[in-house]
Protein 1
Amino acid sequence: MPPVWTAAQAAAINIRGCDLLVSAAAGSGKTAALTERIIRAITREDNPLDITRILAVTFTRAAAAELRRRISQALSEHLLAEPGNTRLVGQLMLLGSAKICTIDAFYNEIVKTYFQRTNLPAGYRIADDAELTLLQKAVMESLINRSFAAGGTFPVLADNFTGNRDDRQLADFFIGLYENIRVFPEGVGFLSTYAEILKNEAGLGFFHTRAGRVLSDRLCEELECYLWIFNTALANFMDDAAWKAAYSEGYTADRDHILALLEAIRSCDYDTARETALSYSPKKLKTLRNKTPEIERFYSQRNKIKYRLMEIAARYFSRPGSTIPDTFKKTAEVCLGLYDFLSQYEKELREEKLSRGICDFEDIRRITLELLVDQNGQPTDIAREYACRFDEILIDEYQDVDRVQDMIFRALSTCCNRFMVGDIKQSIYSFRGAEPSLFSGYRARYKIWNAGRRYKPEPAGLSVFMSNNFRCDENIINFVNLVCLRIFPACASLGYVPEDNLIFSKKTPAGYRPPPVVVTLIHKGSAEDSGKDAGDSAPGASDNEAMLGQPELRYIAGEISRLLREEKNADGSPVKPGDIAVLCRKRDTCGRVAEALGALGIPATSDNESGYYTDPAVSLIISLLTVIDNPQKDIPLAAVLRSPLFGFTMDDLICIRRQAEESCSLYDALELASTQDGNLAGRCRRFVEKLSAYRVLSRSLPADELLRHILRDISAFSLAGGSEGQERLLRLYEYARRFEAGSFRGLYNFIHYVNNAIEAEAKLGEEAAEPSEDAVNVITIHHAKGLEFNICFVAGCGKEFNFSKIRGADFLPDPEVGPAVRLRDPTGLARVNNQLMRAAVLKQQRCDTEEEMRLLYVAMTRARERLYLTAWLGGRQKLENKLDDIEILRRYPGSFAVLSAKSYLDWLLLSLDREPPAGAPYEFKIITDNEVPQPVRPAPADSRTKKEHEDRTSRDPTELERLFDERFSFVYPHAHLTRLPAKLSVSRLYPGILDEGDNSYDLSEVSGAGKVTVPELLPTTKKPASPSAFAADKKAANSAERGTATHVFLQFCNFERCRAHGIDSELAYLIEKKFISKHLAYLVDKRQIEAFFNSDLYALLSRAKWIRREQRFNILLPASLFTERPGLAAELKDEELLIQGVVDLFFEDGDGRLILCDYKTDHLTPAELADPKLAAAKLGERYKPQLSYYASALSRICGRRPDRVVIYSTPLGGTVDVEVDIF
């Protein structure tokens, strides 16, 4: 049955002819609509698109893979309905080459396409985070040392940021500042641009500057709230004679002071505002007895406002207006100094990266911007050329783009073919540079589509709201709307409109009554009631048991236990651990919650800060590699010996150590012990022999192949402790592979690299794990985005937002306020804040507060059926004070009440009634820690009832024995298929390859599901790659190495340029562009190259209509072709293998013949060189199978059989024809 689309979904699917912005709320079917839009574009009868004419980009590989999977599924379903539709077949075949990828991958594709316009080497690669961290620190520390030694202005510049820092901290500061600034479109140029702006603003009145406007806006917003509070108090209580006599004079004076300060600020008169702020002297109020609760609330507010007004005077108006221009000028000087220094750092870092052939994703993004957007912000010729490739551009999660990404996609669009989908309420990645204001800007400019009017494309674009939520129960929807309607309108940058409200659209089972959302506020009760403090635990309790002594954790763990014991999901199934998620704002909280659950025996997985390098399996393998490299290192050796791999006890190590002199190393003692008699000596001998074997391999194997061998040899994956540990070991293997990419570097260099990464605390890019189906998922809210669970707990709602990092910053590069620096005071002994820094702090705090709103929204919309929000507040008095404050602020119509919130709890209290009305979608509980019950341990998930246990134990032993034999003697009927590789290279194929042993082909490829399989061992008989190809002496290099070098030259050289300027010139060019190393260039046989340009083949190439070189291909061939065993061939008759390869050269000659050519550098005997027929027979027999595969692939690529298949032999200097078979 085809899906029924809502009106908004249908609009998002069908509207074309203009740019379209789709605000897709949580659970609104965004991916389904995006998929359907693509499907309809390529299947419509009127002017259908090819899928290759559509560009669809996402932020994550998982999202891109999911979109591709859905498109494939949809096309397959269409083909079932129309099996004869050849166009659909073609589109399904083209899906693999369609541009459906991540944004970073798309940028990389553009750079590779036009890399001749860049200064990148041809073989560049994306470096991992750990490698970049080490390189950045090395370059920065070197530059700092040289800058200090040179003197000049750098020591003065550094003095603004050093304080008590050592040189390493200074390097970290500069690197962090560079990374923050380089994401701006201007890059490091941001500093020089804004330095000039600051110089110009130094001549303006402070409140006329950008920083001054931000500060005045924030102060006016706050003061208007205070003015409302005093006006309300005066209006409510003036009729009370006692109140009037005691308080009216003081309240009136405070109100008048606020009015005067507001007037001065709004008049942009800093000096008058300063004079007014500093003149504040609160009047002492008379005593008033028997105050009502309402009077007490306003009295408390007056005291808080009084101290805040004095703080405003001291914080924002302490400096005379005459000193502010000097602050702007000094800040501008610092910015120019930073610009010079960071520009030099950027230059040196770029040179280091180029010398290593590496770059990072930000480099790729910056190069893409330079390729597509000129200095005036207009599309370049490349952008216009590339834009012609696509009829539609679809960008997912547009709320998370930044200015650079927006500029790139605008440059590639035609102003009527962009489809931008996202949800500004879910923009939670500002720390990565996301700018939600871009999304809200489009929403403000585009006309809102609605179903009530006839659609007509709008030149400026259309905005569609997809607000139907198909995920959450009705109570959750109503609750979320209740909170959002109170807090989001206060956020002007969000542009919240009624269309943003969620619409309940979920289908629920008949008779199902959704449970209410539960908000639980826990505070500390009296110690006398419980006999102990809320945080205490029983003496002797384990760490896990002690975790349950914390009230909020105890409540969450107890409620989860109750759900597992008693409750069912909407579909009637029992609640399982995998149905539940606990969402936390910080990772450290995740670990604490997981420990609390573990104390009850509830399985839980968590996002925690445990280091990658301290993982037991990773640490063990690194220690083993270190010992293989240098067994004289005692600590790694002791760790390996004590590990489960070898099982030596501490007593064993002590006994071994005592057998050698104190000056000897542990390994020397081990070798000595191995020469003795006894059980311990035998174990020592086995260890020494094993280590010696590994050390022999390490001399010739690259680090990745050695590691692969070790992982297999010691069965490391069985020691890794589950899938997470196995993934970490595989990640270590992948880093070794990347480390060895391009050249042989060896174990010593890899260990040195890893140790430096550990010392620098460099992260190895650990990705968030997939949700567990067998355990409670305790994850951060950021990790939860895009996920959904039946039951969600939002923990830590009472924890206040932490702005200390912003307030303590030395430098804030804000695009709106401009750069702000904490400058040295006149004495030079301290660094103090100034008006620029104060304004930047206020601006950043506001941005972070708005992001916290969006985080709360994301957290609340993860739950399908049950939602809990919990908060721990502390003492009773703190609770009463907060409730009194909220009681007044709830009545204030302005935005300050929302924007001054310090926690999620503040927003909940502003939005909800403490005593919910009848029919409310939520329950509000305020309980003491003493009222939180002790959790009950749930029954194990795999427990059996007593009856089940009795049934099993009473069964006939003979029956059990038969069942045991049957199960353990089972033979998988399709075992022959388990040995089929995911893919094979043409160069390794021959007809009987599938008849060989398990190691005759490599199964270490990436599987079709995208998961890395367990690495297979390389054949031990295969000689490993070695650095001998880099021999400096050409005579020392063998013929195979010289042939390889010559083949590489033919592979990459430009025929016309080489013919025109000579072989030496072309070699120099290829070395410069990193196509070939200097070592290989030295080995190139120039005589053979000269013979190539004088050959009949080159004469044909000179007259060719077109030429294709280095053509990569993937084809499916029958698996039965690769076995010579009839039985196996019969079993494989319906199976296919994916064959990969690269065709050296094919072209269409002047007579229209399709010619395929493969270069061969095989050694030929003098007789074969003298008689080309002998050479042809030898080469033809040897390479006929390989060239048959090439010819089969070419037949599919070109739609015709090649007319001629030849081998160009470099020793022979000519071609030989080969008869091939087409499969």
Protein 2
Amino acid sequence: MIPTKPEHVQWTDAQWESIYAKGQDVLVAAAAGSGKTAVLVERIIQRILRDDIDVDRLLVVTFTNLSAREMKHRVEARIQQAAIEDPSNQHLKNQRTKIHQAQISTLHSFCLRLIQQHYDVLDIDPNFRTASEVENVLLLEEVIDDVFEKHYDRLDPTFVTLTEHISTDRDDAALRLMVKNLYYFSIANPDPIGWLHALDQPYLERHLQQHYLDILNKYVRLYLEAAQNAIEEAYHQFELVGDFPKHIDFIEGHRQFLRRLLSEQPIDKTALATYQLGRIPPKPKAVKEDPMLDAAYENFKAYYEQFKDHLNAVKSSFVGRDDETLLEELQHLAPRVNYLSTLTEDVIHALSRAKRARNILDFSDYEHFALQILRDEQGEPSEIATLYRERFEEILVDEYQDTNRVQESIIGSIKRGDESNGNLFMVGDVKQSIYKFRQADPSLFIEKYQRFNQPDQSSGWRIDLSQNFRSRKEVLSTTNYLFDHMMDAEVGEIEYDAAAKLYYGAPYDEVDIPVQFNVLMVDKDREMTASEQEAYFIAQQVQTILESQKVYDPKTGAYRPAQYKDIVILERSYSNARLIQQAFKEQDIPLFVNSKQGYFEQTEIRLMLSFLRTIDNPLQDIYLVGLMRSVIYQFTEDELAKIRIVSPQDNYFYQSIQHYIEDEAADPAIVAKLKTFLNDLARYQDYSQHHPVYQLIDKLFNDHYIIQYFSALVGGRGRRANLHGLFNKAVDFENSSFRGLFQFIRFIDQMIERGKDFGEENVIGPNDNVVRMMTIHSSKGLEFPFVIYSGLTRDFNKNDLGKPVVLNQHAGLGLQYYDEAQGLFYPSLISMSIDLINQKEFISEEMRLIYVALTRAKEQLYLIGTSKKAEELDMMAAATITDEKLAAIDRFNAKNPFQLMYSILSKHQNTNIQRHQRFEADVEVLDAAVKPRLQLQHMDARDVLPTEQDLATSQGHAIETLEARLAATPLDDELAQRVMEQLLYVYPYQQAVQQASKQSVSELKRQLDTEQADTNYERVRQYRLGVATYERPQFLQEQQHTAAEVGTLMHTVMQHLPFKEAGLTDQALNDYIESLVKRSIIRAHDINVIAIEEIKRFVQSDLYYRIAKSNEVYTELPFVVNQHQVEHTPDTTDASIIQGMIDLVFKENGHYYFVDYKTDALIRRKGMSDEELERQLKEKYRIQMQYYQRALETILKCPVNGYLYFFKYGELAI
């Protein structure tokens, strides 16, 4: 029961209903700026206050971690406020404690907690960790490599045909990419394997194929109706030309053919396929001689060309083969589709095994493991799911439009009841569903939206929040006008009806601030591209805002001047960011671009990657020569030519270098440079074999002063940040389960191949007073006083359409038909149908992106597009209207946002087009909510942009201005002295710079010139449970293990060795070692390397039984202590921190002992006694053992004794 709304409350009726509605599943369709977050928080608070529900009995799911933190903070603040107002309320006091256990998080966080609490159901190691992006990318690539290798070994005939079908004659990259895409599509389903198995069913079963025929026939009719509209418009235009019988008869023939064709059900595709367009009669002489008639004739011809394009598109794409042929081809393709499914299924299983072996999980594992916990084998909710149903009184899901099918299944498993009596509250806006590339499924929202609010209450409760509290009414009414004529269920996936419209609710004053739609007419005579001209125009638009606009404060009713930070530039991507940055730099406008592009293109990063690639493999001429030509080694072009000329037949330049050095006639100076270069290369190659990548990068930085050099260049601060960013990425890489320079380079290559850039490191913060540029995706949920929406004329990226294999979550997989005999490709029935579905979904999402962009603006919206031809704009303005919408075909085939927006907005009050080409005869009859307030201006680039001469001399003027300013300003002696002091400053604690702030025991030992051959903290740390070690390539694993690797393995076995008073039998010891393999602590083939007999001797020793009977035992004990305290030195200088790790510490009869294991191979000189050998061994490790002893004594504040245990000798007391 909804309580009566008091008169004084701030909530609208729809918001009030959203806060209190319950008893059914509730779907709140919250339009942009409608206050959904405030409503969601208030609903949570009222559930706590009115219904006495504890906050930890509500599950609140948000889209991002940031949203979750903000939501939790808001709820906590409201609880505290309520508790202060009612201090005697014990329930509220309890909530202040329980808020810290409240389940307000992303769904992934909820899934993670679920797995951590119920890992036993999954039979996984509880010490798992989340895989990094590095691991996900490299591991998937590695698994695909392995799976393909197995299938190449098997060489199934279908696999061979599939490879020929999808791959090129150069490589199988296309097939691998297809399998990767199939993998991502499949795991977005609750049952990935089931989804894969169903992909070939439409190719085999006729009753399923009719669905695809229906789709194809629908779009055939759509194109034919568009062709009919075009030929009818052509006919109307020709009436303005005059009475020319040949032309009229020609046009009339096409009109009659289309009318006859469209009147039939189904359409006669044979007649359509064989129809001949014929040639249009020549332009009449009288028309040529009359400019007005000639212009009308050209208009007629433009519409006739549209008619031809639509008809030819149908003939070439949809009706080239009859229905029966299309259906027969599917049978031929079925085995290949099945094999694609098998390949992907193999990848899923192999990847799962690889992740379990490394004990890592990724985000898809979170979802699928959670679902596995919550569902039994029959797919019904499990006992655990029942417990969660009882626990949560209500489940609240924010941004519901961005969920996928797996997430929907998880939520469905823990919610109560069905839609008519459930406890699920969902809020979102399908018009802002813009994450399809992340497998978000807006159809989940759409289906519920259409199904809820049935008269018989058989489903859920739907509420529309349409009042906008963000934007001025001019922004809202123009947005409504645009979408009222652009979006519907046919192209847009939803109807933009009265419930979907935005209604004004913000408390602005009554000042008229229309939306600015500025079309820049490109100057084709300039060397600047259209995008460069647009970038300069954007910069001018920013200057205009700063000079002429103000920001209104609704609280005070006052205005303040506009600032840089009030302005945002929104574009579909960052592809134009570089040009905008350059234009803003020249206009001296501060700009913040949080770009994810351009990092790998930076000079400093390209140099470092060339260096790393050359170290990894110098037989790569581009990188090798690039490094030699770089500022580091500075070989000239002439020197490189001389090197190459000596042996021009060499396959690699590296060979030419070696031959040049050996040549007697070689220039000694060049030879010296080459030897230095090769010595450096050899040194770094050796270093890379024994050190992590980040240490190699750091060494390159220091050896060649790379950071210092690039810091001194223009933009040095950003360049320095980029180089530090590369170092940090190498550190992140090292924290993954992959190791080595080769794997790091492979990871970088994968990022470049996937077009997934890191983005330049930013040195300007997002809170500074700067203009911001961001993508529409990243702007979602934000608002700005002034929004410049630019880049409208950049074409949509339709690269995923028309490929040999196309995918759709609902329609499945479309594989083009491949004729092996002819080597030709044809679209199959299913591939054509899915392509059409995908194009509709694609355009629908692009429309939603436009909606998000427009609704970010608070004060004013600026739309910026470019055009090269006025005629193109005229054709858009005269675009066909059908049922008060822009014609479906024009929306379906739109090339860019500008075409969609200009074709609609340019019709508003346009007296240059005919009545039937406008949406309304009189704009005044429109309702205020959809009456656009718009200023559309065509601006000639020559009138608004600086001349090229101005741009060329601007830099010189800046230098002249600076010199004049310096000459006019006398030099201040005090200032000069301060500058001199800073430039000549000498750091007074130079000695401290050389002193390490932290040292390991091993390092101290090396400093004292004593050899250290065993325990290494980093090496042992790799064998912690859940941390995989670097795996050498197979051909290296087959070679003999190094002493260090054997030592590491022995330490790993000893680290986990159980100490039992009864001792360990041989069988128990073997079982223990086998368990290490099962727990992925060691590998199966490592057992052959472990000296089991030596471990048996230890188990049988007196020391083992003493440890087993002791009071306390600690293995692999790390310590950190102050060097002064350990060495008992005066505390007169800064002390270093000493860190180390002791193999074992035990407490016996109140006294502490430590043990250090050694795997040294003992070399006893001839005639050496046991006593002499013991003295030698004790002396060898004296310093290390002293530091261990003193460190423990410092920590424990009591005497400590120690033992060296040599597996090949026995124990030695220290």
Protein 3
Amino acid sequence: MAYLRKDIIVLLGPSGCGKTTFGQMSLTCPYLSTASSTFLSTGDKLREENLIRAWWEPNMADIKDFCHDVISKTFTDFQTSDSGVLILDCVKDLEDAEFVAAQANKYGLKITRALLFDIDEKRLKQHWQERAENTDMLRMMLGSVHEYLYQWKKKSNDLINYYTNLKLLSKITDPSSYWWGISLYDYPICSPPNNLQFMLLDSSHIKNVFASLHSVLNVSQFQFSLPASFVHSYRDVKWVANPARYYVTIKADGVRCLLLKVSNGTYLITRKNEIYPCHIADDQLPENTVLDGELLPSSSNFMSEIHPKMSTSQLQTSVFLVFDVLAVSGEVLWKWPFSVRLESLGKLPIRKDIVAVMNQASTDDQSQANHKSSLVKEMLTVHCAIKGHRESTPEDILTCLNTEFPYSCDGLVFTPDKAYVFGPDPLTFKWQSEDDIHCDIRLSFTENEPDPWLDESDVFDWSRCYTITGCCNPFLMSHDESEVFECHWNSTRSCWEPLFARYDKAVPNSDETIAHLMKICQQPFTKDYFLCSLIQVRNFGKQEVESKSSEHADCGHPTRSFSFDELFSNLNELVQLGEVEKTVDVSTSLEIFSCRVSDSSSNPMMARLSRGLVLHPPSKTVVSRPFVRFYEDVPNRDLDEVVEATIKYDGSLGIAFLWNGEVMVTTKRRMDSEQAIWAKQWIKDHCNLTEFQTGYTYLFEIISQSNTVVVNYPFEGLVLLAITDEHGHELPYEDAVHCARTIGFFMVAPRITGSYSEVLWYCGGIKSSQETTTPNWPAFISGAMPANEKRQEGWVIRFNDGSRQKIVYRWWKSTSQLSQLVHPQVIWLLLKHDKIKEVFGNAPHHFQVEIRRMVLAIGRKFEETVRVVETCLQEPSSSNSLCDFDKCWGIKVDTNVDNLQRNEELKLSIQDSEGNYGRFCQLLNELKPYRHARSQFKNRRSLKVTVGRPDDVNLSPFYHHSKPNFLRLPILNYICPTSPALEGYEPGDNFKQTWCKGWKPISTISIDQWQFVQTILQGNNSVPVFLQLPVEVIVMILTFLDHASLTALAKVCVYLRQIVKSCKTSHLFKNVRKPPLTPYCIDNEEPWERSCWTYDEWETNHDIYGSW
């Protein structure tokens, strides 16, 4: 007879937090229920059906369908069973939660509780260590537990909000407490914050909103543009107080949001990717419009949970202050200069009288403030107003500082006149008084510790956590440790003090940002200093203000200095010498010239001109005039010269021109390259072909996902760099922007102007020798944040004479070198020596994706070989043999009827190539001494019994600290790839277009392999120190340590360093008495610890790689 009351309990948490263990133990736990229980883990079901395997990429659609079928069947069986409690470990996202709720409603059941395993990093690491799955090892190969846990919390935010809003969520921070008599129902239910009543919590609707946002903006992902730099010196004031570069506005203290209006509604989207459907008062906005701005929440609906500083707000209706427009009526605007966007913003039907709007919002009838919606219980009503900008002159900045505003302000924001930047922008500045500078930090709490606050010397990773010990603040202690807190700098104690939790932010400030803010807070740039600097700039520093349209003494393209015959003859001479490559397009008789060498050329000028120069010999026509080759080193330049700097995009140079009425496209070398064909098709699909003019040369960067070099952009298209007219003169930047919008290019490379020394510093991070200082003032550091190197390749500077200089960021150079190591044979080498993370830990994401695919192929081959070896290690069960293994082991392979086909497959897999059988025999001979050890684990097939046992054998290509590794190295050596053609691996489309083209076979000798790695990384400061040792020493150390953990290597280096220092001291300073040598103690390494530490962290925290 079915049990009368049936409860459903949902378990939530990251992989490895203990949900399955909790569910299995709950089946027999007396504290759960007097009735019997049923437990479902879809992960276990997937493993039983072999649908998820460590070395195979899963088909997520098939897995989702399978899990939902299993859930449906479980509910059917549970409805008719005697079980009183159904425990589900099957909810991974909001879609799963909705499916489980639908199944419960179908059978008239009710979800009783959702338990969130709020586990910390240390405990999750321990759980991963205990189960030791290859899936976890793959996560740790290039990442860390911290990164995984952060990503899980970010992706599960909607899921947690869903159960919190239903008042079903309980958090379990210590699952072991359950076994000590604490009832499952004793865990308190989390109180939902008031803003959840307005939040969109429908999975399909959420997906549609973000799909609409990306479609309207024509990007694959979106990040808010954020000011990354501070005005903190006279030099910074001089840089931003220039209307040719910047616009200034008051910084409102609110909640940063996007406002998206599409056909199915209007939405506010926060930086936490939370969506709030809303209604705009007096709405006249067109559809497919995206606005960026600051939301001032009302006191009655959005509540102080979003931003406690606004809890005293007198607004009855929220106000959205718009300061940027990213799209209007489907026209994408974020890619154009800020001045263009401001012009479009001013034409929108949005009120500009902020005071009147604020007054209206304060007097609105509260009963009419919110609108009902079928999607959520209530919908926010907002008033919109434009938060005006001024040209950033000293007078306008002073006006902003001295003007009273009807909303809370905490500084000024200086926006450059260039395209919108996704993420922190070092060229966007803000100024705040010392009382308004705050930092967003993730905190953790521990009690009964002597020091109530933590200073900067106690942590090694600013953005991961700050520990508040002995904290007695009940407001702080009532919050989740994973939340982001807004903190204020305590100058007396020299530490950060938390103020309140920021529910609108999911990501803390980066390490670099926090360190930068610390320096600024330690020496504040006060309002008095700021005002004095403005007055000085106005009176003395800006005698000649650069105009927005800098006039260049353009002498035209150098090809105009030569006759066609002279030009063609000189180029062909270089072609014969092999210094220039010529490609002829047969259909048009066009000839493309591309230089191979320029500096050492016999005719350097002609070689520099050959950068995609297109000629038509029959008509003696110079068809296209591309850039003259330019370099990084430009000597003897006037630092006060006004220059233009444009962003250097990381793609392929494309050249377009009109020939015989058809738009033709070529790269620097050919017209039939993959990039040229892609660009020509893009022009055909997106551009107005009638706007191309004869004799003009259109130079652009080809950005596509199949042509990603180092920087991975969130868009595809052609970025216009310059236009040259029929006379060889470049069009001014403003004209180029107009042509780009008329023709239909995706965007124009963003530009900024300034003196040469200013551009070097603020764009390239390069200090000049003539730095401007102010006498008798404190030597303030510049508040400019270091260049955001990982988002672009660098900058291109154009001088008044038309010549150019490029600034290539060091990160791009080192990463470009690193890309040569994304090679199947190198990845095998680093996997063998357990050094993948040390070399590629900071590599771009698309590099890591390709590395993972290579490791998966190696893992599949490793697993296949392990199966063969395990068969050979088993005790003989028959006198017959299919493979002649007696020579190696003196045993027979089982030929039971059930195993006959499998043994045939094993035999074929060994003998599939010439010499493979002999190599396998050598492998068996090498493993023969370990046969007795392996026989202890012959029953490992019962996976659930032996997984996680410390005496189990490591059957993974990853090194394991607590398991015998005798199978690992011999098998890896056996499957060593002898060429880039790695079995089971096919390069992705992106790598086929870029880095795969340079792959060459690498020697299989260890010293030669490490020599190759060391040569590629020579001079790269980001690589581990051990890779800078002589290769012979590297091989000796790795062999001596048996490729063990990095901590073991660190210990060797510590003791060796102390011995050397002691010897040097005794020889150089014999008469100086020195204290006795104290051995440096390093705590015993926990298993997997070396996967979470980098050499940079060791150097910072343990000082083991300092100079001798």
